[in-house]
Design a protein that fits this description.
Layout: E1 12-17, E2 28-29, E3 34-50, E4 61-78, H1 81-93, E5 97-103, E6 112-126, E7 135-142, E8 147-150
Antiparallel strand pairs: 1-2, 1-5, 3-4, 4-7, 5-6, 6-7, 6-8
Protein name: Phage tail protein
Length: 153
């Protein structure tokens, strides 16, 4: 068995745009202290029941068509107070922001990023005990098209 190429967990980054699209270019940076990050690409299906034309009494089969695509992005970790105002202001504004979810590696290793407009749907701030550290959990949902861009060669 050949050993697979793997990637360190620190190389999956959520990057938030600074909103400077005019005149641009928009700059992207990863908020500090997110220890867990993820992206979930999903499709919404429409189901169609297809009958057997030669045997109408036979059970039908279901064919599915993808009718919509979307992405969900999540992150959690220790709340870095340097990032709190950005998360808070974004949540309270209710507006979409440009983001990237980056596999921070070379093109030869399939690196690149998903880019999208997204809305912040969850900002959860917690503590487990008084001697622990405050934690943050965020969830973002795509707002329109999701595009993959290969890493620079």
């Amino acid at each position: 068995m050949a050993r697979p190429t793997t990637l360190s967990g620190s190389k999956l980054l959520i990057e938030l745009g600074d909103g400077n699209v005019d005149p641009g270019p928009e700059e992207f940076a990863a908020p500090c202290a997110l220890n867990s990050t993820g992206i979930n690409l999903s499709g919404t299906t429409q189901d169609f029941e297809i009958a057997d034309c030669d045997d109408l009494d036979a059970p039908v089969f279901v064919e599915r068509v993808i009718s919509a695509l979307s992405a969900g992005v999540s992150g959690s970790g220790t709340l870095a107070m340097e990032s709190f105002d950005e998360w808070r202001d974004w949540m309270l504004s209710g507006v979409a922001k440009n983001i990237r979810v980056k596999l921070d590696t070379t093109l030869a290793n399939n690196g690149g990023y998903f880019s999208m407009s997204a809305v912040l749907t969850t900002l959860n701030i917690t503590r487990e005990n008084v001697k622990g550290l405050v934690q943050v959990e965020v969830e973002l949902s795509s707002n329109g098209e999701v595009v993959w861009t290969d890493a620079s060669a």
